Each structure stands twice: as C-alpha cells, then as structure tokens.
C-alpha cells in the first residue's frame, strides 16, 4: 500500500471549513429533528392512550408503517413526491427556501417519532395505573393528568432510551446527503471527489461521529448511575 | 395519478432484469439481507464472546470494534469499503460484495451486543455447575450456556434482521441494483409518478418488515411465557420455603 497521507490538506484551509460547515448542518438537522420528533411522538402516544378506538387504530398504523419502511424511501417519497401530497402554496414556499433541509427534517422527524412514540408508551406503561386514576379522581382532565402527572414521571424513566434514539437520529441524518443536504457525510464525499483524499476525509468525519456518540453515551451512563437508581417503582 | 407506471414496472421492482440479466430489485435486497445477517451472526458470536473474555488483549479489540462501528453511520461504512478497499488491494471489488461486507461488519457489532446480553442473562450458576461437572470453559459455553442464550436471543435477532432489511436500501448509494435503485431508475425515466413509485416501494418494504416484526413479537411472547412460567414455579417454591422457615 503506497498511499501518501496528507492530513494537513483536510485539517487546514478550505476543506477544513467544509467539514466544520457539514458538522454544523448535521448537528442542526439532528437537533431540530429530535425536538420535533419528541413533540410528535408525545402527541401520538397521548392520542393512543385515550382509549378511543379510531385514534388508537390510526396511531398504531402510523407507528407500524413508519417504523417498518426504510428511511431512504421516506426521504425520496417526500423529496420527489411532496408536490403531489402537499398544497401548492407550501411547496412554493419550500422551493424558495431551503427545500432539501426541510425535507430532511420532515423525514427524520416522522421516522424517529414512530420509534420515540413506542419508547414513551413503554415509559407511561411503567407508571402505576393508580397515578392516572388518582389524578383523574382529583378532578384533572385526561390531558391535564397526562401532562402534569404521568408524562413528567414517564419522561424521567425514558430519558436514556430517548438519548439513544438521538444517537440513531444523528447517524441516520447522514442519509440526508442523498437528497443533497450538505451535512458531514456529504462533505466527506465532496472532499473525496475534489481531492482524491478519501482516507483523510473519511477518517476525520468518522472520528467526529464517534466522538459525538461517545460523549453522549458517556452522558447516558452518568445519568443512569446518578439519577435513575433513585427512581423506584 | 399514474398508477400504470407502477403496474408496468412491478416485475422490474421485484426481480430487476432477472431472466435476461442479473437478479435485482426486491430479490437482490432479500439476498443481501439474508447474506448479511448470516455473516453478521458469526461475527457477532465471535466478538460477543471475545467481549466477555477475562483477558484484556482479547476483550479490548472487541470493545474497540463494537464501539467504533456502533458510533459510525452505515452510509459512511459503505463509503469506507467502497473507496478504500481498491486502494488497499489494488483492484476494485464488485459493488454487491462491498455492500455485503459492509452490512456484515455493521450488523456484526450489533449482534455482538445481543450475544453479550444474551449470555449475561443466563444465571451464573449454570456456568459454575457446568464447570463443576468437569466440562472445560469451551465445552460449558458450547453445550450449556450458548444453547440457552441463543434461544433467548431469537427475538432480538429477528429485530436486527428487520433493521438490516431496511438498511439494504443504502446499497443504492454505490449503485447496487436493489429495490431502492430500481425505484429511482424508474422514477428518473418516467418523471411523472414519484409519489406513486416510492409509496409502492415503501409498501413492499413494509410487508416484509412488518411480517418479520410480528414474528419477533410472537416469538418474544412465546419464549418469555415459557420462561416466566418456570420463574413463577420457582417463586412459589421459594415462597413455600420462606413460609415454612418462619
């Protein structure tokens, strides 16, 4: 193997700026998507818990459908097919703005929210039923009981799994390169095709992904050790 | 709506240009997933066992492998094999083989964690008893621990297989003619029915993955029912013992 490494090429100048730009977009797209998918996931789970048959049926189909189809297909569906599904006005607005980024966020949010909904449901089910019954008996409505009593407790339990969902989301965000979002993997690929310095670019980008993952999973471990054992049911 | 586009290309989605050319479409996706999970199974068992070893020089490589792979997106891994194998071996490798290796190496790390969890879930007494009867470590592992652990791991394996099936769509990126690639080809050619095409493809993936997920749930219920039944019996015996003692 005679390949001359040229690390400075990737670590200085234009290419370094590309990588930093890509990192920022990766963090932005996954940060935005995790917040939105947590909101959407919570709403879906709450709807599923209402015990209204039709809502239950709709939410279960939503969860099962989006969990069991590849993210890439969902990306392509929204990217190529959004003009059929969405109204004209929204499409015009999207085309004028950052269309790829928006499609990336929408797909990642819908995909991840299906997983998060299941996690939150597991968390809610682990809260004793009496909590719900007692808060209903004190006169709170279903929504109030959910948002003030059950969900706050459930969230404390599911935080570690939510964080690992965030890690998955971070890795899944690399798929957004297929529709032209200029995130970290896209930039690595770009540097490779501009300079034939594949080794360096891919190494740096891989290390960045691993570093983020390790930092976050270290966070989970600390959380588990410090806080989780205090919660007993 | 142009559903006739989908109708006309359905055979192409399912088999690629198979009778007149290489197998593609759904057939290739399924083959990639099956090949990937088969190789990943052995990689996973190897590294899962290595991770449980008491010797640091055996445990360490396994930890590094698992942590690196689990922290890296699969897409990046595919690029690693695609761009760097030709540099190392001086000759290009067929795309299908590249993706197959990438899938096995990627899924292997996840299977290794499943294997580790499965082995750790077996009570310690099993190992001690097996060693006590005169089996050595390898025999005890192979004849006592692994058969029980593997049985508990089956649902997780099926789940892993589901996510691998979904992940085979990534082979699209380096030009393997699997289901996603055929869909984008038809989409680029026809241009007038993207929503219909990708919805159909999503449904095809959904049928396979949902079927597997349901299987995994069924297995989980059945296996855990058996185990919990045994647990309950043991609990009753323990309760009896306690009440007798007091």
Key features of this structure:
heterodimer, A: 233 residues, mainly alpha, MetI-like fold, 82% helix, 0% strand, globular, B: 246 residues, 9 helices, disordered C terminus
CATH topology of chain A: MetI-like fold
Q: Whole-number radius of gyration of chain B?
A: 23 Å
The largest contact between protein chains, plus residue counts on each side, is:
A-B, 38 and 39 residues
The helix/strand series of chain A, from N terminus to C terminus, equals HHHHHHHHHH
Q: What is the CATH class designation of chain A?
A: Mainly Alpha
| Shape estimate of chain A | globular
What is the number of strand segments of chain A?
Answer: 0
CATH level 4 superfamily of chain A: MetI-like
> Roughly what is the average pLDDT of chain A, rounded to an integer?
87
Strand content of chain A: under 5%
Residues in helices of chain B, as a percent range: over 70%
- The end-to-end span of chain A amounts to 58 Å
Low-confidence stretches of chain A: none
> Looking at this structure, what is the CATH superfamily of the domain at 23-186 in chain B?
MetI-like
Describe the structure.
The complex is a heterodimer of chains A (233) and B (246). Chain A has helices at residues 7-11, 13-49, 53-67, 71-85, 88-96, 99-126, 129-137, 142-172, 184-195, 198-226. Chain A has 233 residues and is mainly α. Chain A has a single domain (7-230), classed as MetI-like (MetI-like fold), CATH 1.10.3720. The N and C termini of chain B lie far apart (76 Å). Chain B is globular. In chain B, helix 4 (74-89) packs across helix 5 (95-120) and helix 8 packs antiparallel against helix 9 (194-245). Chain B is mainly α and 246 residues long. Chain A binds chain B through residues 1, 3, 64-65, 67-74, 76-77, 80-81, 84-85, 171-172, 174-175, 177-178, 185, 188-189, 192, 198-199, 202, 205-206, 209-210, 212-214, and chain B through 67-68, 70-76, 79-80, 83-84, 87-88, 162, 166-170, 172-173, 180, 183-184, 187, 194-196, 198-199, 201-202, 205-206, 209-210, 213.
